[in-house]
From TrEMBL:
It comes from the Bacteria. SUPFAM superfamilies: alpha/beta-Hydrolases (SSF53474). Residues 28-241 form the Dienelactone hydrolase domain. This is Dienelactone hydrolase domain-containing protein.
């Protein structure tokens, strides 16, 4: 599989509904695909950069779907940086609703022919991707700078450190070295736990970058070199565990 490109000229995104009416942004690859990816969005909602990644992943040959995790509150997309507003939406999420929405996306992707499925999440979605690797029936997961390592973000959702202790699926954690929401002591604890884990999981920390460095190239915090490396690592990880 090729590395995840900066853009794709071969696919486009559509809107559909998964089981239970969960809104999904989806993209299908050209030809027959036997693997899929679920993308879990940031606290800002299902934004244009998330949709672009869905298309990019389909361009790599994956059946791809992103559930709209805010659909119970009119499915808002918040301007990046307006955290107080986004936090209100974040705080409406529940373990039951999140489980239902992610499993709805998984069911849709499998119904399209995916035999193996990974979950990739960014920030808020990264927290959920790690939790999914510990609790849901998936084949791999990638977390980009998901907070909540030492304490849970929602009732009933494992903290990141507790999730690492009970990982079921291979997991790749990608973190920013200057991110106050994922302190070095927490990342070191994750690494120590992984030394006793048999799921082929790993943590990568880019020491000079900020939270949110990878997904949106238009943000000042975007770090092009580190983002390119992170997506290359992600591409290899998916190829290893989904093919």
């Amino acid at each position: 599989m090729q590395s995840i490109p900066a853009r794709s000229d071969h696919s486009h995104a559509n809107e559909t509904a998964g089981a239970g009416g969960v809104p999904l942004t989806v993209s299908m690859p050209v030809g027959v695909a036997r693997a899929g990816v679920i993308v879990l969005h940031e606290v800002w909602g299902l934004s244009a950069p998330v949709t672009a990644l869905v298309v990019r992943l389909a361009g790599c040959g994956y059946i791809t779907a992103a559930p709209h995790l805010y659909h119970r509150i009119a499915d808002p997309v918040v301007t990046n940086g307006k955290f107080t507003q986004a936090r209100r939406h974040h705080d409406t999420l529940t373990r039951e609703g999140l489980t239902f929405d992610i499993e709805s996306a998984l069911s849709w992707v499998r119904a399209q022919g995916a035999q193996k499925v990974a979950v990739i999440g960014f920030s808020m979605g990264g927290t959920l991707a790690l939790w999914a690797a510990a609790t849901l029936h998936i084949d791999a997961a990638v977390t980009f700078y998901g907070a909540g390592l030492a304490s849970p973000r929602w009732p009933g959702i494992l903290s990141g450190i507790d999730a690492v202790r009970v990982l079921k699926a291979p997991w790749l954690g990608i973190y920013a070295g200057t991110d106050a929401s994922t302190p070095a002591r927490d990342l070191q604890q994750v690494r120590e736990i992984l030394t006793h884990n048999t799921t082929q999981s790993a943590v990568v920390v880019y020491p000079k970058v900020r939270h949110g460095f990878a997904l949106d190239p238009d943000l000042p915090r975007h770090a092009a070199d580190e983002a390119t490396d992170a997506f290359e690592r992600t591409s290899l990880f998916l190829k290893t565990h989904l093919r």
